[in-house]
Predict the 3D structure of the following.
Amino acid sequence: MLVGGLLAQAQGDPADALFDDGTLHDIRLTISPRDWESLKEHFQDNTRYPADLRWRDVTARGIAIRSRGNGSRSGSKPGLKFDVNYYSADQRFLGLKNLILRNNTQDASNMRELVSMKFFKRMQIKAPRESFARLFVNNVYAGLYTIVEDIDKDFLQKNFNENDGYLYEYDFDESTRIPYAFEYLGSDPAKYVPLPFKAQTHETSPRADVIERFIWTVNEAPAASWRQRMDEFLDLKAFMRHLGVENFLAEQDGITGDYGPNNFFLYRFENKNLFTFLPWDKSNTFWASPDYWIFRNIKDGPENFRNRLVLRALTYDDLRDEYLNTLLECAESVLQDGWLEQEVSTEYERIRSAALTDTIKPFSNEQFEAAIEELKTFAKNRSDAVRRMVAEERPQ
Amino acid sequence: MSIARILIVLAAAVALGSPSAARATTNDQETTQPAAKPDKEKKAGKEKKPDKEKTADKEKTAGKEKTPKKEKKAKKKSDVPAPDEGPSATDTDAAPPVPADQVEPEGPGTRVTWKQHPSFRIGSAFRMDIQAKFQEDIRDTYVGEPELARTDLHRNRIGVQGRLFKHIEYELERELTEKELDAGRNPKSPWKDVNVDLTYIKNAQVKIGKFKIPFSLDQLTGVTHNDFVYRSLGANYLAPSRDIGVMVHGSFLKHGLQYWSGVFRHDGDNARSSRIAGGDETVAARVTGTPFRVMTQGLGEIELGTAFAISKLSDDSFRPNGLRGRTIMTQHVFYEPVYVKGERRRWEADMDWTVGPASARAEYMWVVDDRQRQGIGDDDLPDARSRAWYVSGTWLLTGEKKERPVKAAGDFLQGGWGALEVGARYERLWFDSVGGTDLPSRNPRAETILPTADRALTLGVNWTVNRFVKVQINGIREHVEDIERNPVPGAAAFWSRIVRLQLVL
């Protein structure tokens, strides 16, 4: 069970200190050496192993850890999920049931995820809290990780003051790699849950029928009543704002990503049919260059990869304006006090030593330094590039 | 499997036992058997009986079923039982062949007969009985169990058994229903009993091949002869069941004392799954006796049994290799296996009492697994312990003498209604660790394993329609004691209901 003096005296959310991104934390795991080797050997499995977790003087004994991730799964530096209450439903760690340690194996800079989520929050969009940590396994340094707040009932309660709605994770089907672009698949609810929408709450009665009606409305509702019907399911302006932030960040694997829609949660509020999108896994932001096109996979890319919801929403002038205005707002925001450049520099200073001594990472130190330089360049030039693209879209 | 299909099968099976079918059977017997068998032959047959039926687990009742000589003489030749009708066949999965020279005179040539089973014979040198077992279920349980198929072709097995010359008996049985077999890392073999029994020495017969490890009265009771649709929790999750090995077995004191002792490659199908590797080399022994035979005249027969099994346990698999606990029908895992290494020690004691139309059984099982160097810090952990018990009773309302299988005094549609029996069983299966000072936990490397258990009450009605067909109706009330592993909301007790149609040829 949970012990630790900090918790007893904590005011507010005891996990705030863990997600304090101004600190490089130390997370310590005690696990059977055989289990640790086994977890790495079988990193594609979701087999859980028992371990003790410690942060500062707070310890959770007998938690379950497992390998996690899709493309980021690694046998040398595994992404980890801590199920604090798997073996004991009452157990919490700083009030949390789950915790994620992202291995950043797809991001040489290690910071795209963390900086992106900070920017979402800066833009008043709900996003998970994150911070950096050095992971020690049986007292041996096991690499630089990002601590990520799981999107679960605790997250919902904290952010929406309710947690009994229907939460779904978009689950990209790695086996077929066929994208799902919000097209209507028919009236059978089973075509929507558990794939591509995997229920995270109400797992035994996930009410896929409401998703089916939502997707039907997106695709099939007549133009004359589309906006009115969509109001039941989605705050379209909030959605366009979410999309604007994501595409300002040049997200290559998001709602309008190169692989079809990906990396988001859907939450349907209690006693409503209203959904909201929640951002997830932003390791592919800051993609390519500051000139990443704001209509990538919207006006270009394979037809079957284009998000039907986005395409239809952008046919409405007010929604299109919301999207473009959000992009401009982002451009302004990152320049205020040089926020984005400053953020990249600050995080770089915080993690540099830990990253360079992380000998398990799948990148060289030179690649790490080069990736940081790319981010700095992006931070410096993205606003101008976006303003230019928006201007081109709105000829005077 | 639709209900309609089940009804069709039922109708066909009942028809098999109908007067016309009986006439056909009689004709068959008349053409293949001489009218009477000289007493001398009968006597010879009786002397041969121990060969198989009195030696295996199934023959545990052979002694008590032995009827007075007078009664045997009164028996008509045409009523000679088919292999799994005979009392000696009680408690077997695969019915043993009745010695050929006991059932009917051996002719010099090749013959095909069919009473209970189609049978192919070559003089007295070779006999092969073809057998089939079908069990179809209609079932229901708590709301929110979407995995449970409401109709289920539960078991579909075919096999052969017989003998070669006088002292070599054999059996071969295969499961046809693939879903009975787990896929994955350690798939279960579709082959059930595949073995040869050498009966040259009456008190030291040798069985080689795949068969049940001699442990647990309930597990050793044949699947078509059970009093209830499902075996007890202990028999299903603690007893080993089948494996490949060599066993010596025999009986003394006119079957008042019987023994089985063998070595096996692993510790049985029940300890393995697609994720659980199971134990390794296993030594097992079982002894049964009727110590009160003289004292309990008129009170039926009480047989006592006990068994032990010791297996090696490795931690080669990266997954836990301990035993698991599951609910009866839905097989919901309420106790996950823990990491183990060292030795697995099993012990059981059982009692089997039959008196007239009634029977009672009780059994206690105890298993401990070493957990050498299985702690999170590679330290030794206290033993993991699993225990189970049950008590059960049955009563034949139609008055027949209790046997397994039950023989109806009058078959349905042949002047009778079959045999009607009621039964009840109460049982518990539970897990914990022996000692430990830490806070109890469910984690598989916990020093102190959080105790958990499943309690179950089964109420049943069995209708033996005729020798081929049995219908079983069971209601099962279960309560998983660990509220976090209980499959129903509110951690409440829940009912499962099942109707099983069984057809044995």
Notes: The first strand of chain B starts at residue 110 and ends at 114.
